[in-house]
Write a structure and sequence with these properties.
Helices cover 81% and strands 0% of the residues.
């Protein structure tokens, strides 16, 4: 399979990174070698989609974290006193609370994406174990 060797050579450039994602990718690639079944192709497709979803969710968390940090800094920089009687501070602090909720939602989405990726990684481990069985 030309695609598997291409993917294998791409991931070989990241040697030394022993993350769950990299281990799962290697298990998937090694289990798919020599197979051409639709199930393996579908599993590979689902795995790489899940990996892409995790990357997108991480990017969203980073963006939301920067936004929440910026809104907190704006609230801290508001004219004193920093209490409920200061409408400028209240507005800035409420904006920060909204940004913080967006961050928490992004973090929950990242957790869900990582759970899906873990599930796909376990499926690839199933294929790898299946290859070890005598036929």
């Amino acid at each position: 399979m030309k695609n598997v060797s291409d993917l294998n050579s791409k991931s070989a450039g990241r040697a030394g990174k022993n993350t769950l994602e990299e281990q799962s990718r290697q298990a998937l690639l090694s289990s798919a070698a020599g197979r051409s079944s639709k199930a393996v192709k579908r599993t590979m497709s689902q795995y790489f989609k899940s990996l892409s979803d995790v990357d997108a969710a991480r990017h969203h968390v980073e963006k939301a974290r920067r936004t929440a940090d910026d809104s907190l800094n704006r609230a801290k920089a508001a004219p004193k006193p920093h209490e409920i009687t200061n409408p400028a501070f209240v507005a800035l602090f409420e904006a920060h609370q909204h940004d913080r909720e967006v961050l928490f939602a992004a973090m929950r989405a990242l957790d869900r994406a990582q759970e899906v990726l873990q599930s796909e990684a376990e499926k690839t481990a199933f294929f790898a174990r299946d290859d070890d069985q005598p036929r």
